[in-house]
Amino acid sequence: MNRATVKQEVVAGLTSFLAAAYLVVVIPTLLSTGGMDRAAATTATLALMSIFSLAMGWYANFPFVVGPGLGGSVILGVTLTQVEHIPWPTGLGIALLSGLLFFVLTVTGARALVVRWIPAQIKQGLGASIGLFIAVLGCRQAGFVAINARTNALTLGDFSHPGALVSLAGLVAILALEAHRFRGSLLMGAVLATVVGFPLGVSQPPNSLFSLPHSPASILFNVDFSGVFTAQALPYLFAFFAGEFFSTLGTTLAVGAKAGLTDPQGNLPHIERAFLVDSVAATLGPLVGIPALTALVESAAGAEAGGRTGLTAIVAAAGFAAMLFVTPLVLVIPKEATAPALIIIGISMLQTFRGGAGETLIDGLPALLMMLLTLISNSFGIGIAGGVVFYVLVQILAGRIRELSPGLMLLVLPLAYYLYGAATAH
Question: How would DSSP label each residue in 376-426?
Answer without folding.
Answer: HHT-HHHHHHHHHHHHHHHHHHTT-GGGS-HHHHHHHHHHHHHHHHHHT--
